[in-house]
Automatic annotation (TrEMBL):
Residues 84-671 form the F-box/LRR-repeat protein 18 LRR domain. GO terms for biological process: SCF-dependent proteasomal ubiquitin-dependent protein catabolic process. It comes from the Eukaryota. SUPFAM superfamilies: F-box domain, RNI-like. InterPro entries: F-box-like_dom_sf, F-box_dom, FBXL18_F-box, FBXL18_LRR, LRR_dom_sf. Keywords: Coiled coil, Ubl conjugation pathway. This is F-box/LRR-repeat protein 18 isoform X2. Residues 32-73 form the F-box domain. One of its GO terms (cellular component) is SCF ubiquitin ligase complex. Residues 70-97 form a coiled coil. Pfam families: F-box-like, LRR_FBXL18. The gene is FBXL18.
Length: 714
């Protein structure tokens, strides 16, 4: 155990208090193994630049290989330019894995210091500022690199890559490439690729209005080396240009399918017409390979017999999002007649409106599911950890043990789950229940007093979780759930990620009227819950269930609430204020609610979330108080992302945005502020005037459960 004389700080003339010495002595009395585990939760910059300088024992432990071999700077918003440069200088030679994804605030000159890390095997630079020349200089020094993630932005020129850089790329086995311009990027240089991940984020037009085309790639090297490929993954943002460019990447695959291909995944929003080349590719895959993971555009699967001919070998991921796949086909062609799929860890059936019914041609949205199909699915895939059934009407019929929630309760290994709101209702709508859109909650119109309990106790009366409800029983049987999404089957966000913004969305499903405050309160059972999304719950009367979540879900880190209760009024403001004071670990908050008033009372309550880092507010016809926003940012020192889209004028939004940047950017280098009017066309006008690179991942709404295979990348 270290003595007090080991203190090497500069404040030796200030003797520590007795309590401080006792605490320090007690902490340093732990074994090295326990201390290393504790230190593994400290950000790398603090570990090396601060903690290491406190005493001799920690100076040694902080440089342990278990802490310096892998450095995570992703979302470390306090990692300034100087800190990152000093970190690379002090432990650069020890780092073997480095994740700097999303460090948009660091300059290219700072990113260039990665070249100091000569032992790097894996590096993620997605979202970082890199030119072709800087990338070339950096990779030339990283001879041991085997895994790389980068962005390809307008102006990228593969011709500027040096011979040493290309030699490094020739040894890279895993490549993740995000494209913001039509380009092959560095793919043709990577002759040993085993895993290729492509993210297409190309806009159809430049900011000057010029129309882009995949023909810009003509003349570039177009010979990707796929012969050793095991994993091919492509995720496309909306737009015809992304489809045009991905076809050029697929052209080589259609000539010769890699014999070691184990995972083939293409995620496309909307329709993506099948071409002759892609048909040849799929036929070749059906003949020559056995897959572990599969995702195809819906237009390639709908009406085809492709699944019947595909071979699978211990599959761990399936995604049939938005496909017209019937329950009969799911059982016969995917599960192979109820064969046990112990290896299947993740299943995405979002938007598959017919996947739990035997005949897709005759089923209507309001018809009940076939519980026998779901029971077969659950029995065959009992090790599922991630399941997405959102964006569909899954109504259960009457009868003991036949409800969807009762059957899903058998999946004891679930860690993430996405369900439509109507699927958790106990029964069909009752005539004695007043629909929420016409109900007037108690206390409506009263002023909200922060810190005063102004809603019913979350554990009493109707607002408390009902042990007899099927949803309550489901959550009781999956206690280790970390991510939960309850999304209305007709919900349409004003700012969606992969779908067009719709001004007049469909009304909620009638069965969703049976899901209210008591069902929300049941979520409080999930002590390990980290991520929660609630969208389009029309029967929220007071929001009292939110208080239960705040009190009991102490691990909650991200919260997304959208269109709760009456659409014309925000009925849950009081409960939300009470909830927020308990959310001490909350880092991300997204609120989407028409007519939301972001006033001083709201921001005073939000200020109690001391760990908050990212805030997004989306409100058609909503208002905000600039003075309240400025005061909130002054109190919450860790907030770096502040995105607000309301009904305020463009002049008001610009003025507030400039004030925030002027007041806080110097002390928060990672500050990302977007304040913009949300007009009737929704996202369209935002993308036109705000660069997509400025829109944070929490800004655009999407379901995240089983969105990608587990452990696809870092």
């Amino acid at each position: 155990m270290a003595s007090s004389e080991e203190d090497t700080s500069n404040d030796g003339d200030m003797p520590p208090t007795a309590a401080a010495v006792a605490v320090g002595a007690h902490l340093l009395g732990f074994s090295d193994e326990i201390l290393l585990h504790i230190l593994s939760h400290v950000p790398s910059t603090d570990l090396v630049l601060n903690v290491r300088r406190t005493c001799r024992k920690l100076a040694v432990l902080c440089l342990d290989k278990s802490l310096t071999h892998t450095v995570l700077l992703q979302k470390d918003y306090e990692a300034s330019e100087d800190k990152v440069k000093q970190l690379m200088k002090e432990i650069g030679r020890e780092i073997q894995q480095l994740n700097m994804a999303g460090c948009y605030w660091l300059s290219g000159a700072t990113i260039e210091h990665v070249a100091r890390c000569r032992s790097l095997v894996k590096v993620n630079l997605s979202g970082c500022h890199l030119t072709s020349l800087r990338l070339s200089k950096m990779l030339s020094a990283l001879q041991h690199l085997r895994s790389l993630a980068i962005d390809v932005s307008p102006g990228f020129d593969a011709g500027q890559l040096s011979g040493e850089c290309k030699a490094t790329l020739s040894r890279v086995r895993e490549l993740k490439q995000t494209l913001y311009t039509p380009s092959y990027g560095v793919v043709p240089c990577c002759t040993s690729l085993e895993k290729l991940l492509l993210y297409f984020e190309i806009l159809d037009r430049t900011r000057e209005g010029a129309i882009l085309s995949g023909q810009l790639m003509v003349g570039q090297s177009n010979v990707p080396h796929y012969q050793n490929l095991r994993v091919f993954y492509a995720r496309l943002a909306p737009g015809y240009i992304n489809q045009e460019v991905v076809r050029l990447y697929l052209a080589v695959l259609s000539d010769r399918t890699p014999e070691n291909l184990h995972a083939f995944l293409i995620s496309v929003p909307g329709s993506f017409a099948e071409s002759g080349a892609t048909k040849n590719l799929l036929d070749s895959m059906a003949r020559n390979v056995a897959l572990d993971a599969l995702q195809l555009p819906k237009s390639w699967l709908n009406g085809s017999s492709l699944l019947q001919h595909m071979k699978f070998n211990n599959p761990f991921y399936f995604s049939f999002s938005r496909c017209t796949l019937s329950g009969g086909h799911l059982i016969q062609r995917v599960i192979d007649g109820a064969k046990e799929l112990r290896s299947l860890a993740s299943l995405n059936l979002s938007g598959c409106v017919h996947c739990l019914s035997p005949d897709s041609l005759l089923r209507k949205a309001e018809d009940d599911i076939d519980s026998g199909i779901l029971e077969t699915l659950v029995a065959s895939c009992r090790n599922l950890r991630h399941l997405n059934l959102s964006a569909a009407h899954h109504h259960s019929s009457e009868g003991p043990g036949r409800h969807l929630c009762q059957l899903l309760a058998r999946l004891r290994h679930l860690r993430s789950l996405s369900l439509p709101v109507c699927s958790v209702a106990d029964s069909a709508p009752r005539s004695d229940r007043v629909p929420a859109m016409h109900a007037v909650p108690r206390g409506f119109g009263k002023k909200v007093r922060i810190g005063v309990q102004s809603c019913p106790n979350p554990f009493s009366g109707q607002a408390g979780p009902q042990p007899s409800s099927v949803f309550w029983s489901l959550l009781k049987n999956v206690p280790f759930l970390e991510r939960l999404e309850l999304i209305g089957s007709n919900f349409s966000s004003a700012m969606p990620r992969n779908e067009p913004a719709i001004r007049n969305s469909l009304p909620p499903c009638s069965r969703a009227q049976n899901v209210g405050d008591s069902e929300v309160a049941a979520i409080g059972q999930l002590a390990f819950l980290r991520h929660l999304t609630l969208a389009q719950l029309p029967s929220i009367l007071t929001g009292s269930g939110l208080v239960s979540i705040g009190l009991q879900c102490q691990q909650l880190q991200s919260l997304s609430l959208a269109n709760l209760g009456m659409m014309g009024k925000v009925v849950y403001m009081s409960a939300l204020s009470d909830m927020l004071k308990h959310c001490k670990r909350l880092k991300d908050l997204r609120l989407e609610q028409p007519y939301f008033s972001a006033n001083a009372q709201f921001f005073q309550a939000l200020s109690q979330c001391s760990a908050l880092q990212r805030l997004c507010l989306v409100s058609r016809s909503g208002t905000l108080q600039p003075e309240a926003v400025l005061a909130f940012m002054a109190r919450c020192l860790h907030v770096v992302v502040c995105h607000m889209f309301t009904g305020e004028s463009l002049a008001t939004c610009k003025s507030l945005q400039q004030s925030l940047l002027r007041s806080f950017q110097a002390e928060r280098p990672a500050l990302n502020v977007v304040i913009f009017p949300l007009l009737h066309e929704g996202l369209t006008n935002v993308i036109r005037d705000v660069p997509m690179v400025h829109l944070d991942e929490i800004t655009l709404f999407k379901s995240r459960v089983a969105e990608e295979p587990p452990n696809l990348w870092w």
